[in-house]
Amino acid sequence: MIAIEYLEVQYGRKPPVLSIESLSIEAGERVAVIGPSGAGKSTLLRTIKGYVRPAQGKVEVMGVNLATAPPKARKRINRRIGLIYQQFHLARRLTVLQNVLCGRLGVTNRWRSLLGRFSADDRRIAWSAICEVGLQDQVHQRGDTLSGGEQQRVAVARALAQQPMLILADEPVSSVDPAWAEDLLQLITQVQRHHRATLVMSLHQPDLARRFAERIIGLRKGKVVLDSAAAAVTDASLKELYRGDDSIPLNDAAGRPRTSQTRTA
Amino acid sequence: MGIVLLGLLGWAWIGTVNLENLLTAGPRFADFVARMLPPDLTLSSTEPTLFPPPLRIAAAAVAVTLQISILGTALAMIAALVLGFLGAENLTPHWVHHPIKIVLAVGRSIPIILLALLFMTALGLGPLPGVLAIAIHSIGMLGKLFAEECETVDGGVWEAMDSTGANWLQKIRYAIWPQVSAQIYSLTLFRLDMNLRESAVLGLVGVAGLGLWIENYRAVFNYQAVATMVIVTMLVVLVVDQTSVYIRRRLK
User: Fold this and answer.
1) ipTM score for this prediction
2) Of B136, B150, B118, B145, which is closest to residue B76 (Cα–Cα)?
3) To which CATH superfamily is domain B54-251 assigned?
């Protein structure tokens, strides 16, 4: 699904923000990218989406090299990569249904879509995505009348409407009410399994990563310093990953991972 | 700073105010107003006159003035939408929006009355030069305001639409338009309101409508008819102004 080799991402003349020798993610994997702030988690996701141009190296997504592929091929895979943002990025004045239909823009008839018209197929796909995220009762509500958690569900549905092969989620739960964070991750992992998509999500909280991902990739200063099955990640390796970053409390004195509720209370 | 301001004020005063003239202006002004009263509200005149009584032609004059401003504003809005989207810094590359911004600035830098005179040399008298003058000038202002409105839209939504594979027009339609449409309608109504007043003034240079009749009556010293037309103009402007305020409040 994703094959990265000798990747370097650099902004200007500063030292590279991302420097990965080799990383591959197989189809259907559920991966969490964790690491201290500024470790390059978002940059990695945006590089995979093709929004960040690597200074060096090769990024292959679904067998297409993003740097060298012709625009047509890049567009073809681009619309099968669903992106979920921390800030949802919904069109605030459009309804839930209209927002989700936007997920069809890449494949639907371009001119008809400008008039706000979508084919029966598009509408069926959008509706089933809305049902999957449980917003069928709010279909005609405007995006900005929803709570943060609900808005993120709309964003998930929009990504699903793309019929994604790959879902990239950039800190999907960082700006929703912590009480809803687990529900939302539950939903994201559930739709990922249901659609047999690959999921790569960056997460701020390592305990959520351990519970919802199968594989954890730890980034520190742009380098992969941890890459293993979620079950095999030890507290010691997490401590090492977050060394010097006190904003992430790891385990409590009893060695038990704290729940997100108690931590934010 | 204060001294500079005082200097500027003094300079402007010396250049314009003739105190002697101003102090003796009272009686002359009173005489002028007296000749306007009472406004001519007759529908037919007993003696032969060069122009029909004002209330006879008021409806037609109001109609032409409204037509000029409505059509001019509509043309301007359509062109300004295209140029506004293309001229927004966050929607197009530098080499597209930069020249467009310059074109828009040139458009609004030419006074409407000058544009009307220019178009009249090519098109002759009548309402059409007024329509074009108003359209050209309004494109400059509306295009700039539309572009600025687009520039306030959060770039994240634009990227999110891009990530679904939407093309440029689709991104405009779904990421930008829903966020700016209410404000664009509101700005256009506001401009319509301004254009109505502008088109009344355009009569002074020969564009058809209310202004032309005011100028006609003034030229034959029929000040009572002038007064009627001024009142009619004020009423129309007030009605359109209030309607536009009402609609704009509803749009928010």
Assistant:
1) 0.85
2) B136
3) MetI-like (1.10.3720.10)
